[in-house]
């Protein structure tokens, strides 16, 4: 519940008046013998002491630290977005900068399966190189259906490195495949080198992923997420909520969901946090899991 202050107690009013007087006297002394400046300070101080203005001063004093903190985070958000935009970076570029900062740090974990940032980079590069070698190029669309696991994010991250996915531009001359193909061996044999040439062709405005809505306000539909939009809402949520690189985030949500798979994994890929996943949400094991993984942030 938000408390609205309309009238101060005697103690609060005394504090507010005392602060106004102290600030006014201090500024007046700093003005020295400048009578005009002292007169202006006196008039402003007198103005603030009359009517209901001590209440306004008190409220400003109470909320100023919060507002300054949010302002700093907002400036930080815009700084990084502008920096990445000027550099022509996509999500893949930003992630590689995170990997260079701490390649051996734990990025993703589910049960006892752990992937470091370098592991994620290597696997996503293998995905990119493998599908590019098959003939997939910028503008093709690939459907992803997987259970919750660290490799889920590596798949779409790798695919995004070789281009956006637009269903209106699906190549018609790709070989038709029936049945299933085991990707484990194929990806293991693929190169872990960064597909730098393909990545540098990408732009922030390129489509990166389609994520289907749950149909809360209508039929399920594909939301178009570009690199720029993805970076904006991930960093917006991260910076404005004070997420730090040292945080361990517990995420039991499905990775096909915007909250779990986009914003959740995005804090790992763009901000360098560590994320602990779960195959399926469990209410009975929720707090046990949080304690076990020493989570500092819970996503739910």
UniProtKB/TrEMBL annotation:
The GO annotation for biological process reads: long-chain fatty acid import into cell
AMP-dependent synthetase/ligase domain ranges (all copies): 95-163, 196-297
PROSITE patterns in UniProt: AMP_BINDING
Show the catalytic activity: tetracosanoate + ATP + CoA = tetracosanoyl-CoA + AMP + diphosphate; a very long-chain fatty acid + ATP + CoA = a very long-chain fatty acyl-CoA + AMP + diphosphate
Q: Which family does it belong to?
A: Belongs to the ATP-dependent AMP-binding enzyme family.
Question: What name appears for this protein in its UniProt entry?
Answer: Long-chain-fatty-acid--CoA ligase
Q: Which UniProt keywords apply?
A: ATP-binding, Ligase, Nucleotide-binding
Q: Which residues cross the membrane?
A: none
Species this chain originates from: Phlebotomus papatasi
Superkingdom in the source lineage: Eukaryota
What lineage is this protein's organism placed in? Eukaryota, Metazoa, Ecdysozoa, Arthropoda, Hexapoda
């Amino acid at each position: 519940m938000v408390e609205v202050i309309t009238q101060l107690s005697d103690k609060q009013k005394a504090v507010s008046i005392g602060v106004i007087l102290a600030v006014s006297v201090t500024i007046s002394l700093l003005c020295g013998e400048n009578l005009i400046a002292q007169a202006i300070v006196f008039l402003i101080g007198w103005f603030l002491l009359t009517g209901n203005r001590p209440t306004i001063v008190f409220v400003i004093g109470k909320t100023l630290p919060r507002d300054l903190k949010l302002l700093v985070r907002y400036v930080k958000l815009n700084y990084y977005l502008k920096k990445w935009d000027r550099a022509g970076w996509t999500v893949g570029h930003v992630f590689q900068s995170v990997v260079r900062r701490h390649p051996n740090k734990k990025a993703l974990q589910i049960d006892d399966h752990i992937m470091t940032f370098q592991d994620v980079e290597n696997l996503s590069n293998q995905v990119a190189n493998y599908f590019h070698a098959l003939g997939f190029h910028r503008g093709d669309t690939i459907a992803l259906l997987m259970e919750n696991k660290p490799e889920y994010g590596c798949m779409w991250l790798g695919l995004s490195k070789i281009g956006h996915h637009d269903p209106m531009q699906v190549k018609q001359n790709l070989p038709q495949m029936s049945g299933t193909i085991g990707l484990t061996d194929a990806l293991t044999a693929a190169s872990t080198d960064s597909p730098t040439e393909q990545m540098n062709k990408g732009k922030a405005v390129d489509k990166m992923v389609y994520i289907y809505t749950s149909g809360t306000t209508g039929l399920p539909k594909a939301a178009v997420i570009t690199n720029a939009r993805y970076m904006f809402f991930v960093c917006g949520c991260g910076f404005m909520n004070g997420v730090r690189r040292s945080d361990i985030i517990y995420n039991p949500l499905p990775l096909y969901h915007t909250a779990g798979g986009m914003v959740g994994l995005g804090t790992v890929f763009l901000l360098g946090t560590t994320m602990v996943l779960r195959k399926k949400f469990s209410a009975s094991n929720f707090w046990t899991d949080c304690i076990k993984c020493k989570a500092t942030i819970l996503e739910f």
